[in-house]
Amino acid sequence: MKAPHFWYARPGWQALALRPLEALWRVGAKRRQARGRGEAVGVPVICVGNLTVGGTGKSPTVIALIERLQARNLTPHILSRGYGGTQTGPIRVTQDMTADEVGDEPLMLDAFAPVWVARDRVAGARAACAAGADALILDDGFQDPALIKDISILVVDTQTGFGNGRVLPAGPLREPVAEGLSRADVMLAIGAGTLPDTRGVPVARGEILPLQTGMPWQGMRVIAFAGIGRPEKVFATLSELGVDLIASHAFGDHEPYSKTVLNRLLHEAQGENARLVTTEKDIARLPDWFRPHVMPLPVRLSLTDAKAVDDALDALFS
């Protein structure tokens, strides 16, 4: 889905009209958290999540945490629900699987650490532990109370913050801000924008930057496409790299690419003598026949102030 414009504007008539449904969502979110404290599985669980729907930088955060845990000689595994995939799991992701089966993010993250897809988070955690995990990263599990979390990292895009401050469907929030912040151990603010209300939660800061691969982007004729939470961030990054951005096409987050759409993109690129560029997450959703025609734009999280994250990891693993 694409986020409605009014989610990130001052609350207007649309948000007001949706308040009865927002009230129901709030009740459901509160009941979910009241189910219990969750289960322990014998290894530390680090949760990466957010309060809003859409992209805030969770996947780059997971990659950065994997690198920090591996530097401590740990063997972390990633737990995912496999959004967009058909597999219910628990199943370990392999590169011969498709995004239709396990989702695009698990396929992308599998390059960095073992990934388990499981709708039942507890069953997935136990399978990962049996396979040798001594630390678990729970991807997008902040609102899921099934597992006891040792560290909960709340990722916030400072450009959009908490939107209009309303809960779904009147706004982008999955739950009220105060309730979410009460369970957070660290807020990771991504971007140079103004921090939203932190309610005393320790803050780390970072930026999503293109990976330095030596690719000569300057002056390259590019047609970009992306189906992520905020595709415009990809297009802005390419422009900052100095490409000649001929066209940009935004698709819905996790949206499958039909053969018709891919052929249209290919013909457009050929007609403009341009290169097709997309994200690593989008690459995972593309069929094998199309991938040779596309260049990925890899990005990574640069932690400009990592103290809050490192302090939490030190306290957990010391």
Automatic annotation (TrEMBL):
Catalytic activity: a lipid A disaccharide + ATP = a lipid IVA + ADP + H(+)
EC number: 2.7.1.130
Full protein name: Tetraacyldisaccharide 4'-kinase
Gene Ontology cellular-component annotations: plasma membrane
InterPro entries according to UniProt: LpxK, P-loop_NTPase
Function: Transfers the gamma-phosphate of ATP to the 4'-position of a tetraacyldisaccharide 1-phosphate intermediate (termed DS-1-P) to form tetraacyldisaccharide 1,4'-bis-phosphate (lipid IVA).
Top-level EC class as recorded in UniProt: transferase
Superkingdom: Bacteria
Lineage, highest ranks first: Bacteria, Pseudomonadati, Pseudomonadota, Alphaproteobacteria, Rhodobacterales
Family statement drawn from the similarity comment of this UniProt entry: Belongs to the LpxK family.
